[in-house]
Each structure stands twice: as structure tokens, then as C-alpha cells.
Amino acid sequence: MPSEFARTLRRNGTGIERILWDLLRNRRLTDLKFRRQAPLGPYIADFACFDPKLVIEADGSQHAGSTRDAARDAWFRARGFTVLRFWNHEVTGNPDAVLDRIIDVSMHLPRRTKVPPSPGA
Fold this sequence. Notes:
Layout: H1 2-11, H2 15-24, E1 34-40, E2 43-50, E3 53-59, H3 67-78, E4 82-87, H4 88-93, H5 95-107
Parallel strand pairs: 3-4
Antiparallel strand pairs: 1-2, 2-3
């Protein structure tokens, strides 16, 4: 069952996933609510935000040129999700650039709920 497998993945996440989760969790990034190892249909996304519809994947070298990843991405996109993939070395080497890219993309995606203004705005 995907949800049970997702729980196992959450308990045994890679170091890169833990780093990225620490940056995304608890609405730390522009009040986006991410879930890690989120079951979506037949797949499990590394990180998923449902408002806006955004999937974040952290990839190691085994993902280079992966047709399986292309099929996953197509499935997510067919359901309205935007997919961002980051190489592991991007997450460790320049996490600020990764977060900037996530923020930039998320700000241009349609939201179902109104985003509260930032403090002091």
C-alpha cells in the first residue's frame, strides 16, 4: 500500500531529503505547506504542496536520464502539479538558490487559498 511505503520512506529518508525537509517543513517557506514522501496516485513524491500544486524531487545520479522519472513527472503534470527536480549537490552546495527557485515558481502558480500578507507589509 502506498501510504505504508511512504511512512517507511519518511522514517528512512536520505540525508539530502532531511536537509531539504528542514528547509521546507512547518510552513517555513513563504507559508507553503509541504508534505514529505506524499502518496500521489501510484507514486510517492519526495515533497508535495497542494496549494499551490507543487512537487519537489531531490535526485541523485541514479536519476540522470531516467525514463521512469519522466513518466512520473508527466503523471503529476497531468494532474495540475508543477514539478521541480534538484540534484543532491544543488541542495547541499547552494540551498539558498534551491529555495529561491521554489519561491519564484510557487509565486507564479494559482492558489486556492488567499496568502496572508507578510508581517510589516
